[in-house]
Design brief:
heterodimer; A: alpha/beta; binds adenosine-5'-triphosphate; binds magnesium ion
Chain lengths: 258, 258
């Protein structure tokens, strides 16, 4: 199994501070989406974000890699302030890859190219290394034979697994998942979640927005419940999922678990 | 009875023979005599030359205009006010003005202004026509390209950026190939429209295909032969181009596994 193992090239010690968010604010015009969010994410940690629709989970995640420009507060990555104007965000983004709800594979490129494009163009790997890694990672998620297929020839579940491989091929320090299973037919949710569970077991740092409470319970070591632009409650899965203190959390869980 | 029938038949055959002879004489007069077919050949050459270089110039202008317009449209809300934004805004307005003026005035007027007002020092009509039609076509192609860029899902740019590719690389490797594929039929169509539109080049004394036909008409005082010949040549070129585009489109469709 070592051969197929996802290569987690460690750049730092488990448990050290990886991302720090302080008093993050974001508004779109008059709409305040994030009002004051602070959070520390440590290497190896699996953080699950929960919350009702419109509570700002996606926006928070997208602020972490500056797909959205925060309107207030600061974010650090490995002690470097990425919200500072002189920060080269592209270098940071290459190390915190994102998996989207809609997969966002590149339809005009083969699966191989989808996976190898960024590492090769950013000169992180040679073409040969990238190809070998792509094959190895694809085999890992059971899609080795799809390497020359095109995205539209694949099912949603297969596409999302490939999107995960594409992110993994960057050898990221942290992976951001935005509801990776909500665009999938129910019978395909399992195959994607099991890839994520395995990743988690291997020690990948993950920030996951999801409505899959089962996944949160199994994988998370920190659960954050957001509502209306604030973090309402956070803690271990046991604390937040089994014994929530706040009425809004209790309400939300009751609705989701029904 | 039989005799009468024979007479009619004879008359008919006579008429047809007469008509053929007349046509033959006309043909000889219009195309063979004084090597007049050479005029048509020169004309066709100029028509193709003008169309081809004009469309190239048009695409060059259009890419710049479309990039300014679409990146302004997608980013202006997020930019901080300042000098950079003002400059950007100025260029966006300039591009809009260009498109409005070009699309709002007749091509033949643009051509004449270019020849008689702006480029008065050159008597190279072909050059003037190339530049004038190039500028004209740029406005239309710009809108085609802008539409193409806008038709690509926002997630594609985000996926590229989230992997650490910068704006230019994402545009080049991910957006542009998809845009090209999407707009190729429209571009080819624009070329066909342009090719026919160059038939007004005679206004600035350029010997294009139409003008060549007209010259023959003026010399021989026959209208049918030269005009029909010109029409047929345009038709053959356009139908040929249309066929080529069809083949190209099919190739492109196959290339991403549809
Ligand atoms: N680019 C944008 N422009 C304007 N409003 C936006 C934009 N992106 C998000 N919003 C608004 O911000 C609010 C929070 O959105 P966000 O996507 O962060 O919520 P969410 O918690 O991820 O919800 P969901 O569970 O539905 O995905 C919503 O009201 C949304 O309409
Ligand atoms: Mg969301």
């Amino acid at each position: 199994m070592t051969e197929g193992k996802i290569d987690l090239q460690k750049r730092g010690a488990i448990g050290e501070e990886l991302i720090r968010v302080e008093h993050l604010k974001k508004h779109f015009g008059d709409l305040e989406v994030l009002k004051d969010v602070s959070q520390v994410i440590r290497r190896g940690q699996k953080v699950v974000l929960l919350g009702p629709s419109g509570s700002g989970k996606t926006t928070f995640l997208r602020c972490l890699n500056l797909l959205e420009q925060p309107t207030g507060g600061k974010i650090w990555f490995e002690g470097k302030e990425i919200t500072a104007p002189d920060c080269d965000i592209n270098r940071i983004r290459a190390r915190m890859c994102m998996v989207f709800q809609q997969f966002n594979l590149f339809p005009h490129l083969s699966i191989r190219k989808n996976i190898t494009l960024a590492p090769v163009k950013l000169k992180l790997k040679t073409k040969e290394e990238a190809d070998a890694d792509a094959e190895r990672l694809l085999a890992r998620v059971g899609l080795r034979e799809k390497i020359d297929a095109y995205p539209r020839q694949l099912s949603g579940g297969q596409q999302q697994r490939i999107a995960i491989v594409r992110a993994l091929a960057m050898n990221p320090d942290v992976m951001l998942f935005d509801e990776p299973t909500s665009a999938l037919d129910p019978e395909m949710v399992g195959e994607v979640l099991s890839v994520m569970v395995e990743l988690a077991r291997e020690g990948m740092t993950m920030v996951v927005v999801t409505h899959e409470i089962g996944f949160a319970r199994e994988v998370a070591d920190h659960v954050v419940f957001m509502d209306d632009g604030y973090i309402v409650e956070e803690g271990t899965p046991e604390e937040v999922l089994l014994d929530p203190k706040k009425a809004r959390t209790q309400d939300f869980l009751r609705k989701v678990l029904k | 009875m039989a005799e009468w029938f024979l007479q009619v038949q004879m008359k008919f055959i006579l008429r047809i023979t007469e008509w053929f002879q007349k046509m033959q004489a006309e043909f000889t007069l219009n195309f063979i005599a004084k090597d007049r077919w050479r005029l048509l050949l020169t004309g066709l050459g100029n028509t193709l030359l003008i169309s081809l270089f004009a469309v190239l110039i048009g695409i060059l202008i259009a890419v710049v205009v479309a990039l300014v317009r679409s990146s302004w449209d997608t980013t202006n809300e997020r930019l901080r006010p300042g000098f950079g934004k003002s400059v950007f805004s100025f260029f966006d307005r300039l591009c809009r003005l260009y498109i409005t003026v070009i699309r709002g005035t007749p091509t033949v007027i643009q051509l004449m202004i270019m020849y008689y007002v702006i480029m008065t020092s050159t008597k190279n009509g072909v050059l003037v026509a190339i530049i004038s039609f190039g500028i004209n076509s740029g406005a239309y192609v710009a809108e085609i390209i802008r539409g193409g860029i806008m038709s690509i899902e926002k997630g594609q740019m985000e996926a590229g950026r989230s992997l650490g590719l910068n704006y230019t690389k994402t545009m080049w490797y991910i957006i542009a190939p998809q845009v090209l594929k999407a707009i190729l039929p429209a571009l080819a169509n624009e070329f066909i429209v342009l090719l026919k539109e160059t038939s007004i080049s005679g206004y600035v004394a350029v010997m294009d295909l139409t003008y060549a036909g007209n010259r023959i008409r003026g010399a021989t005082y026959s209208a049918f032969m030269p005009l029909i010949a010109v029409a047929i040549i345009y038709l053959v070129v356009v139908v040929g181009l249309t066929k080529l585009v069809g083949i190209l489109e099919r190739r492109l469709r196959q290339s991403d596994g549809r």
